[in-house]
Structures are given as C-alpha cells and as structure tokens.
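Q: Can I see a sequence and its folded structure?
A: Here is a first one.
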Amino acid sequence: MDDSTTPPPPAARVAHLTKTYGSTDNPVRALDDVSLSIGRGEFTAIMGPSGSGKSTLMHVMAALDAPTSGRVWLGETEITGLGDTELTLLRRRRIGFVFQAFNLVPTLDVRGNIALPIELDGRAPTALERARIDGLVESLGLANRLTHRPHELSGGQQQRVA
C-alpha cells in the first residue's frame, strides 16, 4: 500500500461527546452527542449563539474539563481516561492556549512569558525549539519587545506573545 495516499490522522477529534452541568433535578446539557474531527493544518471556526456549548467543547477538547460521556483524542492519543498528572503533562507539552484575557505573567518580560511553558516542564528549550521561537518572535514583530513587560505592550502585541 502506498502511504502517500493515506491521510494523516486528525489533529483532534471527539466522538459522541456529552457534557452536563448542574444537579440531577435541573441538569443543563451543554454538549449533546457531538462528533467532530479537525484535520492537521485546518482552520476551524466554532460558531453559535451564546450558551450553545462552544466554550465547553473547546475546554473538553483541550483537556481543561472532562466530558460526561463520549471520547476525545489529541492526534492519535485518546485523552478521555487520562489522570490529572498525565493531562497536565499533555496540556503543557502538546496544547497551546490563547485566552481572551491573555494571562501573561506581569512580572515577566516577553522572553520570560514565551519561555514559561518550557520552564514549567522542568527543562531548557532544545536547539530546535529555540530556533522555532526565534523565528516566530521575528515573524510576529516582537524581536524589539523581548525585554518589555506586558503592561508596556499593546493589546495586539500581548496577544501575539500569548
């Protein structure tokens, strides 16, 4: 079989995902049998009215919240049954988050905020990671801001750091 015709596995997918909040007397079903696959390199918009489950779906897919039922994969790794320690490592090593509030550490400069996830992982960046970070910093127009703290940056610059 020619592997070049085999599509790569999805970057993320969920199957029959359900998430219910609240008490048994007054449950709120935020997700109801959702199945979704997102391919590598794909741009995907999750749209819907307020309260339709968009944030819940993203939180479950990013392992920030657990589903009530259903399954979640990141790449080829099923994350549904992973424990807290495994989920922490997975989030730290494989998922990037950009929140509406950028959540930058105010006492760290741009360089420190960029390096923080790797430092939290208890290691120094590899040469490949340093080269990738340097390339991203340059392409995002942040090279002249590396020693600035978040309060010294515009909102757009803070978002690019995040």
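Q: Show me another, different protein.
A: A second, unrelated one:
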Amino acid sequence: SDQNKASLDLDLQTHAVSLDLAPKLVGFNSLKTGFSGRYLKNKSNPNTGVKRLIPDYKRYDLGFYALATKSLNNDLVVDAAVRLDYMRIESFKYYYSALWTQRGYDTTFAAFEVEDLGTQILTAPKFNYLNPSASLGTSWALNEQNRLSMNLSLGARNPNPSELFSEGLHHSASRIEIGDLRFKPEIAKNLSLGYRYQNTKLNFSVNPFVRLIDRFILIEPTGIQQTIRGNFQVWSYRQTDVSLSGLDMDTQYAFTNKFGFQQQFSLVKGYELETKTPLINMPGVNMINALNYTYKQIEMRIESDYTWRQNEFPDTN
C-alpha cells in the first residue's frame, strides 16, 4: 500500500581515485602535484509514484593540480598553485511540457528532447565544463612577533545537479524548487589579507577579504503553488553577479600556563552588484568567547556563542 511506500528513494554510488606526488626540487620549499577523479551515479526508485526532484544522472569529475612554495629570503615566502577541472553530467529527466515551453527550453535545448509524452517530455541533458583555477600568495615576517600575508586567487564552481535540474517538491524543506538548465559556472576573484601577532602570551590574527563572483547561484522564494498535497512556497534558483566582503579575527591569551582566554569573531556582507540588494541567507555577525582552565589531565571550558540578528536581507515577500 502507499502508506508504507517511501516518497523519496535514491541510490547514489560514488567512486573516487586520487594520486598525489611530492617531488624534491632544488630551490623550492615544497612542490606537490597530482590528479583526482570521481564518478557519481544517482538513480531514483520509480516505484515511489512521486515525480523526482532530482533526475537520474551520471557525473564524471577529473582534476589536475600543482602547487609550489619558495622562500625568496629569510623573511619572504611565495606560494603559487594552478588547477584544471573537467566535469561532465549525463541525465535523463521528465519535464512537464508546459514548464519546458514556458522557460524556452523547447528552442534552446531542443537537442535534449527524446520523447514527447503529451503532458511530459523525456529529455537527456548533457553538459561539459572545463575550468582553470589559480592562486598566488605571499607571507612576510616583519619580525619575530609580526607577520603579514596576502593571497590573490581565481576560481570556478560548476552548477550542481540540484541547481540545474530541480523541478518539484523538496520534501525535507517542504517547498517546491526550480532549477535552470542555462546556468554557467561561477567565476570567483578573491583578495585576502592577513596580519598575525604572536608572543609568549598573546596570539592574535585578523584576516579581511573581498570576493567578486560572476554568475553566483542563489535560491530565493518566487511564489506559491497549490497542489493536491497543499500549498507550498516556490523557490527558484538564479544567477547574478555579487560581492562578498568581511573579516575573521582570532585571539588567544594565556593568563597563566593553565588559564587562558579565546575569542573568535566573523563578519561577512554580501550584495548583488547591479541592484545593491543584500544577498539572501547570509549569516549574521558571530562572536565566540571562551575561558579555559587546565588542571593535570582535566580541562574545563566556559563558552559563549553570540550571533547578531541579520538586518540585511532582500524583500522577497
């Protein structure tokens, strides 16, 4: 009977392989290179009788990387890294004919159509992504207590199957989610700075950062849909150019060799570049304070964790 039948029944297989090499090369502090590969196969049980939120798909990942660290002198260290990632997705998915036409997929992705079943269309989407990434960083010791660091990086993130193919009820979130086949990889440009002070009692670090992301993928409420199971919010994925900025601070102070204080502080702000609208689901400012006391093999800790209310959010009501 349907009473004992699962609404969601997935079989996900994952196979991964990696190889890392660390050759010794004169003039470099460290050198590392290698590759990684992964194969994923997702299959839904059709006997649930429920339309699949995520379709059957196969995903292939292959990545190559190299990174190196070199000391220019006793105080200045430079590190660099490059990476190349390839991803392929092969899927079979039933789309409602009305949605397929409404979103313009019938013209943009006509080659994906396998069979027209009237109210639904069987499709076989296939996507290939090839993305390079790189980073360059420096670390400069001003003296025994003070150190500065900087890192520039360029990275990419491919859309995942949920963001591409979602079209239905997400049971755990109790909402309908809609993906988009037109999504392109996110491209992120990052700048991070760092300062660290350390002596026998105090260890303090602060790390501000700025990140610009082209085609950032987010999900937000866009409406309400009535079904035979009730009314559900509709959340749709979309892409937009955004900026993220913030800082992390970490403080550790030893009053004695047994009694100490720790504090962690994090702040991040995110906005859409074109409209200056705050990003949805951004975390509020967070601060953790703790007192530690150690006696022989016993450690006692009192901790407070405070998160400020997030007052910046988009008006999607």
